[in-house]
Amino acid sequence: MTNATSEFGLELDSIADVVSFGLAPAVLAFAWGYGQSPDVHNLGWVASFLFVICGALRLARFNVQARRPHSSLPPKNPKVDKKAFVGMPIPLAAAVIASIVHFFPRPVGYINESHLWSLVITSQAYAIALLVLVTCLAFLMISTLRYPSFKNVAVGKGNPRILIIALALVVTLIWFYSRWVLLIMACSYALNGIVAKLWSLIRPRHSDRAELEIDRKPSSHD
Q: Tens digits of per-residue pLDDT, 170-207?
């Protein structure tokens, strides 16, 4: 807010992020989800601990990159691209866990036969699914997948009225349908990096298409 930075603030901010977005969601996932199942209780501790460690590594890598001069890196290195984060940001990983808990307020251990979905999926299956999800989020944080930072979105760019209307619409939807909207937003962002990476691997590169066009052109000696 004051547009001021310091080494002390950088370290303190990382510690606060580890506690707020690393430790708290890990404990929440354990207490609300897989910690209720005795079959995966020990694995639950491992998954929660892994989430905290990977979140701390993600923040440490971010701090190192922030201190490193940009001149020492290639000009198009994704690590210095302000439009994208390298690895899933820890606040968004925490948002996925929080949105799931917000969508299903009742802890997994309290699922019983009176619930309609328990006839198809047991509480143990829910616990295992959440354990796998937390583990995947942990590895996404330390991955090299690129996630949008939305730093290039500003009111001054383009038509500000469209941005204001879009923000007002999102706030309204969150106010009336917070459970669905927050869950969809968090999961969509988590899948964004994976889908973008798969799309970059599947789609033909521009250079490859250019080479194909050159090969198809008749030679002057023909």
A: 999 999 999 999 999 999 999 999 998 888 888 766 54
- Best CA proximity match to 173, nearest among 159, 183, 162: 183
As a whole number of angstroms, the distance between CA 148 and CA 197 comes to 12
Q: How far apart are CA 80 and CA 149, in angstroms?
A: 12
User: Count of residues for the chain?
Assistant: 222
Rg, the chain, Cα only: 22
| Domains of the chain, residue spans | 7-216
Own/partner long-range contacts of 71-76 (Cβ < 8 Å, ≥24 apart): none
- pLDDT tens for 120-172 read 467 788 889 999 999 999 999 999 999 988 776 654 555 678 878 888 999 99
79-134: per-residue pLDDT in tens?
Answer: 445 678 889 999 999 999 999 999 988 887 666 544 545 544 677 888 899 999 99
pTM above 0.85, yes or no: no
Q: Most distant CA pair in the chain: distance in Å?
A: 80
Residues in CB range of 37: below 8 A, 6 or more apart: 44, 108, 109, 123, 124, 127, 128
Structure-token pair, residue 45:
């501790």
The span from the CA of 104 to the CA of 88, in Å, is 24
